[in-house]
């Protein structure tokens, strides 16, 4: 029987409560959107398999709760992720300022070399924009990561963002593969950064 997928990537979405993490996951995995806001309790995930450069990549997308009270539960999931999506809301300045704190949280809890991506969500609400695109682009550049403005509502850039992240992880894992080793092994997460990692990503 043909293998259902070539690689499994665990991705994680983080960011303040209400920025649209759940909606982005639902848009990407089910191509759906709801304007009803039900705050995530703890953590949940959805799966979608995509074809990237001829490889079948199974994406397990973990959606975390943005509320502070769930922080202990959600940070426990950072380590298993090979990609982390940082989300803010372009109509909410505070959610953008907090990206610095979410970056810090990645540094403290994620595997070394985890691929990061910055998303400014709700770009369909141009009239209520508080965070300028240039400002976010600058921040992304400082951290050496990619940046997209997305809308889970209109679906703008959602597909592109997840595909770009998956492609970057795929390319990174192959580039680092020593001769004769399996690329799958390189996608296994190492220990958190602070304990000194053996993960080959990065
Ligand atoms: N206009 C617009 N509204 C959005 C968009 N994405 C999400 N929303 C709305 O924003 C609200 C919060 O969305 P969620 O996806 O539940 O936010 P979250 O980041 O998962 O929140 P927590 O689970 O509390 O961390 C909901 O009312 C959504 O309908 C978007 O791209 N455009």
UniProtKB/TrEMBL annotation:
Catalytic activity from the UniProt record: GTP + H2O = GDP + phosphate + H(+)
GO molecular function, one term: GTP binding
Primary localization class, coarse: membrane
Subcellular location: Cell membrane; Cytoplasmic vesicle membrane; Recycling endosome membrane
Keywords annotated in UniProt: Cell membrane, GTP-binding, Lipoprotein, Membrane, Nucleotide-binding, Prenylation, Protein transport, Transport
Record PANTHER family: LD44762P
Annotated EC: 3.6.5.2
CDD domains linked: Rab8_Rab10_Rab13_like
Organism whose genome encodes this protein: Cyanoderma ruficeps (rufous-capped babbler)
GO cellular component, one term: plasma membrane
Enzyme category, top tier: hydrolase
NCBIfam families: small_GTP (TIGR00231)
Family note: Belongs to the small GTPase superfamily. Rab family.
Topology relative to the membrane: Lipid-anchor
Descriptive protein name: Ras-related protein Rab-13
Pfam families: Ras
Annotated spans, Disordered: 175-202
SMART domains linked to this entry: ARF, RAB, RAN, RAS, RHO
Single Gene Ontology BP annotation: protein transport
SUPFAM superfamilies: P-loop containing nucleoside triphosphate hydrolases
